[in-house]
Design a protein that fits this description.
By secondary structure, the chain is of the alpha/beta class. It has helices spanning 40-56, 65-88, 117-124, 134-138, 148-158, 194-202, 213-217, 222-229, 257-277, 296-306, 322-335, 343-346, and strands at residues 2-7, 14-22, 27-37, 94-96, 100-105, 110-114, 128-130, 164-169, 172-178, 184-191, 286-289, 309-311, 356-358. The chain is globular.
Length: 368
């Protein structure tokens, strides 16, 4: 099938969309990929909904801002889908829809993503698979990370032997370890770009640490770094997941921006190093994808601590679109009833499929 996958992450840059030729087991080829940015007004709507989601925390009436954020996501996904279909010159057979995460509380089986897969199915006139976390959560899993099955398929496509690690540096960092026998171990290692982006935005210095320049100009505060690494998340073992907002920036209030960013960058590096020590076996190489692979200070820190650490783009992968590609791959697995999550990736008791299929409603399907 030609499958289109979507991802809009906590960085709120916009909507990533990518097309993949796949049967949910192999990757047979790629179609177009692109980023459709959010406007400042759209981003503000989603940020407000995210803040209200944290205050709500699953208790009481759902904030009205969720619907407003959902409308922004629907519009962005539709723009991205139309652009990708135009570039591909054909309509995909299936769509994998992630939506925008506002809140993730796995211990209460709560993970909130906004966006309307039925509306997308109707307008694009293509079946849509969404809600890929919910079955895992109901079965006692963490509901995240979702991408390990796709990482394993990428490793197989490239002929890379295990043990191997994929490290995604988005708002949160997560690792997938692939053993020589295909065993999968995965978990969120800690914050990646999310906290750095937040403090840069709070200080009015832009949206992110462009090129790692702020981190390069600052000094790491060893005491604050140690306090951050004392968080209970790092005492956990096995599958575990994070919300971007599980960590506070309050401890950085008295630091200059450059020192705060340097400390948070070191925090990402050290939390990944901690994760590496808990893997079943040291990987032959680390393949790094996501926005963080464009930060040279972060990448050099990882190389210093991990050894062979390669940006996914250097291996011919579309490093900024791996998660969107994964949503396409997982959608194909879902319609075939193949597992999306595993005991070693989310803590679910047995390999589990997931996702709900929305078919276009003939009466409302429209020409793209």
């Amino acid at each position: 099938m030609l499958v289109m996958g979507y991802m809009s992450g906590t960085s709120l840059d916009g909507v990533d969309v990518a097309l993949v030729e796949t049967d949910g087991e192999r990757i047979d080829g790629y179609g177009p990929c692109l980023l459709v940015p959010f406007s400042d007004d759209e981003r503000a709507v989603v940020v407000r909904a995210t803040h209200e989601a944290l205050a709500w925390d699953g208790h009481g009436s759902v904030p009205s801002s969720f619907a407003e954020a959902g409308a922004v996501i629907d519009a962005g996904y539709l723009r991205a889908g139309r652009a990708a279909i135009e570039q591909a010159g054909r309509r995909p057979d299936l769509v994998g829809f992630h939506g925008q995460t506002l809140l993730h509380r796995p211990r209460r089986q709560l993970s909130v993503q906004v966006g309307d897969p039925q509306a997308l199915a109707d307008v694009l006139d293509v079946p849509v698979v969404a809600q890929m976390r919910q079955d895992d959560l109901r079965a006692g899993g963490e509901g995240a990370p979702l991408v390990p099955a796709y990482h394993a398929a990428l490793a197989a496509r490239m002929g890379l032997p295990g043990p191997l690690a994929f490290l995604n540096l988005g708002g949160v960092a997560n690792v997938t370890w692939i053993g020589a026998d295909g065993e999968l171990v995965a978990f969120d290692t800690g914050p990646a770009n999310g906290l750095i982006d937040l403090i840069v935005q709070q200080r009015g210095a832009g949206r992110y640490d462009d090129g790692g320049r702020l981190a390069a100009a600052g000094q790491v505060d060893a005491r604050i770094l140690a306090d951050l690494l004392a968080h209970e998340h790092f005492r956990g073992k096995g599958p575990r997941s994070l919300d971007r907002y599980d960590f506070s920036l309050d401890c950085l209030t008295d630091l200059a921006l450059e020192d705060a960013v340097a400390t948070l960058t070191a925090f990402t590096v050290e939390s990944v190093a901690l994760a590496g020590r808990s893997l079943p076996e040291p990987p032959n190489a680390w393949i790094v994808c996501g926005g963080g692979c464009h930060n040279p200070v972060l990448m050099q820190g990882l190389r210093d601590r991990l050894g062979d650490c390669r940006a996914a783009g250097d291996l011919g992968l579309r490093s900024d679109f791996v998660e969107a590609e994964a949503m396409a791959f997982l959608a194909a697995r879902s319609v075939r009833g193949l597992p999306l999550t595993y005991p070693g990736t989310t803590g679910v008791k047995a390999p589990l499929t997931g996702g709900t299929l929305w078919r276009p409603q003939a009466a409302s399907a429209a020409v793209v």
